[in-house]
Amino acid sequence: MKNIFQNKYFLIILTLIVGGIIGWMIKPSSSAPISDAHEHSIDDQGIWTCSMHPQIRQNEPGACPICGMDLIPLANDDENQADPMAVRMSPTAMALANVQTAMVGNTAPTKSIRLNGKVQVNESLLSKIPAHFHGRIEKLYVNFTGELIQKGQLLAEVYSPELVTAQQELQMAYQNKETDPQLYQSARKKLENWKISATEIEKIETKKQTLTLVKINAHHGGYVLKRNVSQGDHVQMGDILFEIAKLDKVWLLFDVYESDMQWVKKGNHINFTVASFPGETFTGKISFLDPVIDPKSRVVKARVEVNNSDLRLKPEMFASGVIEASLPGDETNVIVPKSAVMWTGKRSVVYVKDATEDAVSFRMREVTLGPSLGESYVIEQGLSEGEEIAVNGAFSIDAAAQLAGKPSMMSPEGGAGMSGHHHGSIPATNSPVSQPNSAKVMTDLKPLLAQYIMIKNTLVEDNLSEARAMAQAFIKEISNVDMSVFKGSDYQLWMSQSKALTTSADLMAQSQSIAEARNHFIHLSGSLLELTREFKPTNESVYVQFCPMADNNQGAIWLSLEQDIRNPYFGEAMLTCGNVEEVL
C-alpha cells in the first residue's frame, strides 16, 4: 500500500514538471503585437472637429451635431514645431475648410467710386432779365416757360410814370446842355441805366418824342427757364422778370461724401449713365470741386461740364457715375482682399502662412488698415510684399487657433486650449434635433427689432450722431440674446446672421458720414429680415419696404412697423420714396 502512494505522488510531481517545461517553450514573445483593436488610442486614429464649432471633437469622420457641416481632421500640434504660437493644418483640413492663400504684392491703390448726381443748368450760360424801374407790364411777348428765344428778341413792354418824368427832364437838360452839361449827362445816363437804346434817346432829345412804353429785350438767346410775371402785373425795380439759359452745355453735379474725398480730385475722368438712355454711357472730366461741405447733407459737389448740343440731357435728370480713382502720389501699397481680414471693431488681423517640407502653419498677425477699396483694403502696417496669407477660410483657421489655445482674433495673447466634447459625450448625429423655445426666442429678439427701428428712425431724420449711438446699442442687444435657445439649423442661422449684424452695426457706429451709415444699414436690414422671417420676434405686422433708388439705383429694403413710407436711405430729400413689398 505504501508503494502505491509513493508512486502516485511521484507521477503528480512528474506531471507538473513536464507541464511547466512545455508552457515555457510555447510562451509568446514579449514583443508580439496586442491583438485587441479596441486598445488603439484616439491619437492613433485622429481627431475630427467642426470648423464652425471647434468645441466638437470625435475620433471618426461625420457631421457636426450642431450645424450639420462635415467634420474636418484636426492636425496634431507638434510641441517641437519651430513656431509654437502658430496653428498647424493638414492639407486635408485646409481643403475641407476651403482655406485659400495668396501672395501679398505691392500695387497702386485704385478704387471704383460710385457717385450720384443731377443734370443742372450751366450757370455761366444763365442770364436774368430784371426790371430797372417801377411800372406795369402792358404787353407780354413770352407765352410759356421753355420757349426758345433769340438775342435781342422783344420780351415785354412796360409802362412807368417815372419814365415819362425822366424823359421830360432829359428834354429840358438837352436845351441847356451848353450851359449845364453835367445836368444833361446825368439825365441821359438815367435813361441809359434803364436800358433805353441810344437811338430812342436821340429821338427823345431831338424830336421830343415821349415814350409811353419801355421795351424789354433779351440780352442773350436761350430757353426761358422761368417767367415770373404775367400781363398786367406791377413790378418793382430789381424784380427778376425772366431767367434764360443756353442748354447746349450743361453741368453734372455729383455728390461726394466725406469718406470719398481723398479719392476724388479735379481732373478725374468719370463715366456716367442716366435712366432715360439705358445702356448708354457718357463721359466727362471733373472741372471743379466745392471748397465747402454742405452742413446738412455732408457732401461736396463735383462739377462735370458736358456738351449737350443735341439737348438730350435735361436739367434735373438723375445720373449715376463711376470714377476709377487712385490715391495721390506714385507710391505703391500692400493691398489684400477684404475676405482675408478679420475685424473686431478695434483690431484687424490676418493669418500669415508658413510652409515647410513637413507641415503648413498659420500665425495671426495684427495689421493697420488704410482706405477701403471696395472689395479690398490698403494695409498701412503689418504685411510686406512676398508674404503669403489666407484669403479665404480665415475664420476656420481662427477657430482652430482658439481650440489649440494659440493667439486668435478674440484672444491675441492665446490661452488654454479647449478640451471640447469627445465622441462619447456627443449625441448621435442622426438623432432628432430639438426645436428652439419660441417664447424665449421672441423675448430675446424683440428688443433687437425695436433697436433696429430706432436706428431706422434716426436715418429718416438725417441724424448721423444718433444713428451711430443707436448702432452701438444694437450691438449690446445682440450680446444679450441667449444662444442656448437655438438648436440645429436654427443655431447655424443665428450664428451666421448675428455675426453679419454685429459687423454691419460696428461699421455703422464708426461711419463718418450719413451716406456711409446708410450703406451699412442696407446689409443690417438684409440680415435682420432673414431672422425676422424665421423666428417672428413680434406679434405685430412687420412691413418689408423697398426703395428702387437706394444703393446706387440697385434698390434696397428696410423693415418698418408702420405701413407709411419713411425712407431711411434718403431722409428728408426723398422721404416718401418707396413701397411695401411684403408684410410679415
UniProtKB/TrEMBL annotation:
The keyword Methyltransferase does not apply. It holds the Pfam family CzcB_C. Keywords: Membrane, Transmembrane, Transmembrane helix, Transport. Residues 408-437 are annotated as: Disordered. Residues 128-245 form the CusB-like barrel-sandwich hybrid domain. Residues 249-321 form the CusB-like beta-barrel domain. The keyword Transport applies. InterPro entries: 3HB_CusB, Beta-barrel_RND_2, BSH_CusB, CzcB_C, DUF3347, HMBD, MFP_Cation_Efflux, RND_pump_MFP. Residues 162-210 form the CusB-like three alpha-helical bundle domain. The chain crosses the membrane at residues 9-26. Residues 449-539 form the DUF3347 domain. Residues 427-437 have a biased composition (Polar residues). Residues 334-397 form the CzcB-like C-terminal circularly permuted SH3-like domain. Residues 48-73 form the Heavy metal binding domain. This is Efflux RND transporter periplasmic adaptor subunit. It comes from Marinoscillum luteum.
